[in-house]
From TrEMBL:
Domain GP-PDE, chain residue ranges per copy: 7-278
Gene3D superfamilies: Phosphatidylinositol (PI) phosphodiesterase
SUPFAM superfamilies: PLC-like phosphodiesterases
Pfam family, one: GDPD
Name assigned to this protein: Glycerophosphodiester phosphodiesterase family protein
């Protein structure tokens, strides 16, 4: 997909450490910083729109109701995006609340955009900036227990996302990410050439997880805390073509250590820091 002499910089949810996550301002700022890839998450609305959101509900940590009220942590799932039409989803604000984990984040009013709106906005901005085309790393937020409740069943979920990517002709620059193997298996079956990334939690072993998937994905995306030289050496020996792009690396010392182990890319909430490190 890309030919680079250095690891790719993936802006996590745009640049979550700097601007509200998964919003147009965050994606545009990451683009200006110079990220190679925009990482984002998608869910599905009641009217089958592909919505950019990390949760299939409104997070109490970052969102306000349409009338500007905070959302109680105990009522988050009552704001189920899969049960709301997009016109209603857009009325929630998910940019003004200060995220407790990101004190440097600059807050501003922002809504959850559609995937098609992100693609339109970013592609136009890329041309205006005169910079190389950006890649898209799109995580489909899927859990088997959520089927039919917070998300469509896998076949429809994958088809809805692929339809948008085909429409905007960005599939060759896109990697589909998921923790749910069913999503990647379906995507690979429908579009064998599509780039896929198997995401892994900290308690999931790398090689057994790839074997269980049933095919070697383009990318393995482990929790960065599980990355060590022994694991890297083992996966490189077993699958030389498999790219390693850990998530989510926010401390410069961790970035430096992982770069020393030959990562193909790094996903970070602070792409400005990673870009500065690479420049040095």
């Amino acid at each position: 997909m890309f030919s680079y002499s250095r690891p790719l910089v993936h802006g996590h949810r745009g640049c979550r450490g700097l601007l509200p996550e998964n919003t147009l301002p965050a994606f545009l700022h990451a683009l200006k910083l110079g990220v190679d890839v925009l990482e984002l998450d998608v869910v599905i609305s009641a009217d089958h729109e592909v919505v950019v959101s990390h949760e299939p509900w409104m997070s109490s940590a970052i969102c306000l109701t349409p009338d500007g009220q905070p959302i109680s942590p105990g009522t988050e799932t009552q704001h189920n995006l899969y049960q709301l039409p997009y016109a209603t989803i857009r009325r929630y604000d998910c940019g003004q609340r200060q995220h407790s984990d990101f004190p440097a984040q600059l807050n501003e009013p922002a809504y959850k955009p559609l995937l098609r709106e992100v693609l339109t906005t970013v592609e136009i901005a890329t041309r205006q900036l005169g910079r190389p085309a950006v890649g898209y790393s799109i995580e489909l937020k899927s859990e088997p227990a959520h089927d039919g409740i917070f998300q469509p069943f896998p076949a429809q979920f994958v088809e809805l996302v692929l339809a948008v990517l085909h429409e905007y002709q960005v599939l060759p620059r896109t990697t589909l990410l998921c923790f749910d193997p069913r999503i990647l298996q379906l995507a690979q079956r429908l579009v064998p050439a599509v780039a896929t990334c198997l995401l892994l939690e900290a308690d999931q072993a790398w090689l057994p997880s790839v074997k269980k998937l049933g095919f070697v994905p383009t990318v393995l995306g482990p929790d960065f805390r599980t990355v060590n030289l022994e694991a890297v050496t083992a996966v490189r020996a077993a699958h030389p073509s498999l790219q390693l792009i850990p998530w989510t690396v926010n401390q410069p010392d961790d970035m430096q250590r992982l770069l020393g182990w030959g990562m193909d890319g790094i996903t970070t909430d602070y792409p400005d820091q990673l870009l500065a490190l690479l420049a040095r």
